[in-house]
Design brief:
The protein is α/β, with parallel strands linked by helices. The chain has eight helices and seven strands; from the N terminus they run H-E-H-E-H-E-H-E-E-H-H-E-H-E-H. Helix 2 runs parallel beside helix 3 and helix 2 packs across helix 8. The radius of gyration is 18 Å and the shape is globular.
Length: 223
Amino acid sequence: MENIRVLEIKEDIASRNNEQAKSIRAELKEKKICFLNIMSSPGSGKTTLIVNLVNRLKDRYRIGVIEADIDSAVDAYTVAEKTGVKTIQIHTGGACHLTCQMSYDSLCALGVDDLDLVILENIGNLVCPAEFDTGATANLVILSVPEGDDKPLKYPLMFEVASAVAVTKKDVLPAFDFSIESAEKNVRMRKPDAPVFFVSAATGEGMDCLVSYVEGEIAKVAG
């Protein structure tokens, strides 16, 4: 064992990713394009929420949607069919997250010069997507009622990187042991200043406030 040397070689991948993310944000800011990254666990209602948001905003803004999945194009077809806006599907080749390079390639493939808002539906996962800055203007994190109000405690980074949190599926609240007060308290533990919206994309409850938030993010970029 005395003749064996152990070398630790570390490459700061995150640092390179973050630098590229800054460049993407700067480029989009110059073009006055808002880039909204939506993250959550699988089955939380991301696609349904996106469809609702887009249909409420598309008469006033030019919108494009990027759907990211490991495989299939189900969500892209759903969004395109139900909203009519420009939509593309990207596959991550098995990766559980999007790197900034994947994000940049997706923006180029979508074509953003004629858009005011780009919505990215990130991979369904409460861990990996939070570790990589996509270059987005804002991160909207979704927590659904069926998941439980304790998720911000179990997955801290996801809620720490949130610009805002939408608690979805409020219409099924009576069927689950879910406390609105606890959910908001737990989110505040991770990100004290993040606005929290309690919504139902199915019934439309609470969506007006969330739409106003997104419009505010678009206005910030438009300057």
